[in-house]
Each structure stands twice: as C-alpha cells, then as structure tokens.
Amino acid sequence: MKLEGKTAVVIGGGSGIGAGIALALVAEGCRTLIAGRGEPRLNETAAAWQGKPPLLTHVVDVTDRGSVRQLFDDARRELSQIDILVISAGTNIKTRTMATMTAEQWDQVLAVNATGAYNCIAQVLPEMRARRDGLIINISSIAGKRAIQLGGVAYCASKFAMTALGTAIGNEVASDGVRVTNVYPGEVNTPILENRPVPVSEQQKAAMVQPEDVGGLVVAIAALPPRAHVPEIIIKPTVQGYV
C-alpha cells in the first residue's frame, strides 16, 4: 500500500470530491478522518468503506474557529499526528452575478471557501513545520485560475483567494519541509451541481470528472517522496475546454 503508516484529515470528506479523496487514501492504507457539516453524509461515506483501517468521522463547521480547533484536537488524539491535510469543503450559490446575489451570500461563500481553508491550515501548519514534514492539498477550482462566468462572482473570488493562500503559504514553508499543492478541478460530478442556475443532465454528469478520479490524483501526489513537490495541477473533463 502506497500510504501505509500515514495519516490524513479530509475536510469536506462526507460527499463529492472529498469523499472520493478519502476513500482513495484509506484504500492505500492511510489512516483517515473525514470531517464536514453533515453527520449523515459523513456516516454514509464511512460505511461505504468496509476495509481497514476504518474511516473516522467528525462534524465540523469550518467557518467557526472553535469548531475547527476542536476537530484538530480530537484528530490528534485519534491519529497521533496529521501527515496530510486535504481541504475540500466548498459551497456556491445559484445567484452568481453582482446584480442578483446579496451581500450575505458573498459572506457565506467567502467564509467557507477562503476563510475556512485558512482556519484549517492554521491548525496544522505549526506542527508540520516543527517536525519538518507535511502535505496540505487545497481543492481549489479552475475558477480559482480563470474568473469564469459559470463559477460566478463570489465563487471565483473565493477560489482565487484559496489559490493565493496555498501558493503564498507553500512558498513560506518550503524551507521547512512542508509541501502545499493547489488542485484545480474543472467540472466534477458532485452535489454542488445542485446549486447550478441551470440543471445539469445525467448525460452531462457522466462526461464530467468523477470524485474517484480526483482521489487517484491526490494519492499520486501524496505518494511522492518528500523531496518532490507539486505546487499546482489541473484536472478537467476531456470534453471541457481550457483557455
């Protein structure tokens, strides 16, 4: 197994990309804890894994620093140390233009996608720097590299912030042996599609990247030796353009 002896916390691991990543990690022997807002989804994903080690679960609100602190305190007790942190919690809204969205919606998207990522990274970075080892993987978006209309104003801004956060921190901690990778998925078949302004057909979903595809990519990154660093990588459907 590629990741036997390693540990991971996957934020947003109850569904979508996060679940795909968590299942891929644990299948490679990585002791993994999944965290998110919805306990039923976390339990469903944990139950889908019948092997060993078991998938651990923990409810968290990434916008609440007290909740985030409690998550990582409990994760350390369960896992001893956190070798890999994957941040895959994300949200979007249906009203995606300046003309239609509200200030409260802007706050909501930025709080989860950008500040939530900061809150989680801040909890693990000191210990990773102290032991001179660790991997942080931010699941950003192509919308974090291109301000595309499909993503919308708030989502693009939040993902650009997540991208800059990961890049800046990665440069800061490189000499400490800590690696940060920004992953930029294109269209992925996940529950966030329910927030699209226009419904997505089953045919369209089938042509998209699937969560397990992203899981395989993350495993490949995590299995690299500490001397090798992937700063950023794009994964998109074959049929989706990239300009």
Question: Which properties best describe this structure?
Answer:
alpha/beta; globular; Rossmann fold; 243 residues; single chain; 7 helices; 43% helix; 15% strand; seven-stranded parallel beta sheet
Describe the structure.
The protein is α/β, with parallel strands linked by helices and 243 residues long. The chain has one domain: NAD(P)-binding Rossmann-like Domain (Rossmann fold). It is 43% helix and 15% strand. It has helices at 16-27, 39-48, 65-79, 103-131, 153-173, 202-207, 211-222; strands at 7-11, 31-36, 56-59, 84-87, 134-139, 178-185, 232-235. Strands 3-2-1-4-5-6-7 form a 7-stranded parallel sheet, with helices on both faces. α1 packs across α7 (211-222), α3 (65-79) runs parallel beside α4 and α4 runs parallel beside α5. The chain starts with 6 loop residues before the first strand and ends in an 8-residue tail after the last strand.
